Automatic annotation (TrEMBL):
This is SYPL2 protein. The keyword Transmembrane helix applies. InterPro entries: Marvel (IPR008253), Synaptophysin/porin (IPR001285). It comes from Oceanodroma tethys (Wedge-rumped storm-petrel). GO terms for cellular component: synaptic vesicle membrane. Keywords: Glycoprotein, Membrane, Transmembrane, Transmembrane helix. PANTHER family: SYNAPTOPHYSIN, SYNAPTOPHYSIN-LIKE PROTEIN 2. Its main location: membrane.
Length: 134
């Protein structure tokens, strides 16, 4: 929900005045889907572990239970792939919306003929990239 993030920008008309700008975009849905699926996968893994260890005899005797377990595991694997792809796309969109060059291009202050705007350092996105790879 980048639109909720305000940042201050100097206003060249008045030296001490600033304007509040907001970022553009709402990329929360892919992140929420990714995290929700991760939580449900963890809960299912814990339930399956209890079934495997605590009720091993029931799991071995029932012929349908392993098939149901396999089908649920395949569904989780498929949805995990979809969630990782969705989060990867969402992260790419977040990077594009928050890239310093795109922020400078959106600032009216930096559009003057003799104005030079510098973004400074490039943000570190290493940990965000790792979250997609996992």
């Amino acid at each position: 929900r980048l639109y909720q993030i305000p940042f201050e920008m100097p206003d060249c008309e008045g030296e001490s005045e600033t304007r509040t700008l907001h970022l553009v975009g709402d990329f929360s849905a892919p992140a929420e889907f990714f995290v929700t699926l991760g939580v449900f996968s963890f809960l299912y893994a814990m339930a399956a572990l209890v079934l495997y260890v605590g009720f091993h005899s029931i799991y071995g005797e029932n012929k349908k239970l392993p098939i149901v377990d396999f089908c649920v595991t395949v569904c989780f694997a498929f949805f995990w792939l979809v969630a990782a792809a969705a989060w990867g796309k969402g992260l790419t969109d977040v990077k594009a919306a928050t890239w310093p060059a795109s922020l400078i291009a959106a600032m009216a202050v930096c559009q003057g003929p003799e104005v030079v705007c510098n973004a400074g350092t490039t943000p570190a996105m290493g940990l965000a990239n790792i979250s997609v790879v996992r």
